[in-house]
Write a structure and sequence with these properties.
about 425 residues, alpha/beta, seven-stranded mixed sheet, 9 helices, about 20% helix, about 25% strand
Amino acid sequence: MFSNLGENQIKEIIKSARFSVFFVDDCQRIHMKDVGCVRYIKQCAEEMGAEVHQEHLSSQFRCNGSDGYLSWLDNALQIRETANIRLTEEDYDFRIYDSPTEMFEEIKRKNESNNKSRVVAGYCWDWNSKQNHTAYDIIIPQFGFRKQWNFNSIEPWLIGEKSIDQIGCIHTCQGLELDYVGVIIGPDLSYKNNRVVTDGFKRSPNDQSLKGFKAMVAKRPTEALQAADAIIKNTYRTLMTRGMKGCYVYFCDQALAEHFRELMAEKPIVAQEVRIEPVVNDDVKFIDFLPVYSIKAACGYFGEGEEVSELGWIRAEGVGRLNRNMYVVQASGHSMEPRIQDGDFCVFNRNVAGSRQGKIVLVQHTNYYDPDYSGAYSIKKYTSEKSYDEFGNWQHEKIELKPLNKDYSPIILTPDDGDEFNVIGEFVGVIR
């Protein structure tokens, strides 16, 4: 434990027992000092004259029992080549998010039912809150995303009642399971020239996993880079296999996100038969059903307070717990593909809390025409640039409503041009 007492755990276990069983996953070596690989265990046992038997696990229960997902993940991270090149929905619930905020909020929704979902991240951000409990650690400024690493406390982070807002790391979740895990892939992992590339220098100096790495680079650079490469990839493999039911991921490196997307099987577009009920009982409203509005009506109702009638009520499943701020509109066009398909029934929350940066929103605007909706309404990804005056007051310099489909152009709103806009709702999900 202290690097100065005894030899190591492998030799001490073998010396202390007549019969030792080691349950080993070589791809979970996540520390420069980890020595528990199959090859080294066999070497130590044979040196002591022990008879060695090696067996292989035929199945496992992690990640919904999907051996296909684990093999696909090894292939995607380029840990080893496997035959599982494409991941399908049947294999495992794996999703890629364009915004860490959106991913975090979805994990929080999953956590509401049984407190068994959490977000974890690669150790690429300093632990500032360890000394200053008001400071933030994981900061991704373009999305207004700010979170803290998990605190040391009597109650374990993984099951704490209020720890959902904190982010865990490899040291607080290895060997443990969640229902759903959200993973932030830091800048220590990227994709360049068709290769998944690691960078040990992008890890925080607070992380002990690569302790001694910089000194080793100076003396034995090839060995150091190979060791860091294995540890970083193994770390993310371990983080991305904590979820029994699903893994939701945000990549800091967009090229890496695209690499993973290309390895996911395209979802077949199936015509949906969504039934809109003209009338439902009051006791199921906002419990099982949500009101459906035309986009024009929704913008008028929530933006200007006009009295409008809903088109009907729709059963809303798979979007978390419902509330009275939620409503449904039907998407039109292809600008938000692949996330939102033409004709999808989209759930929005009219209380847009906190920063809108990076969120998909329903917007009413003037002076610009969105062909998808035949007028001044848009469902787009919201980004903004702000400026501050000498008194510290801020105003929007530019607001950009971005499509997810690269074949479409963004809508640029600038206050100097007299543009007015109103965010009517924040996208929650699609009713499937």
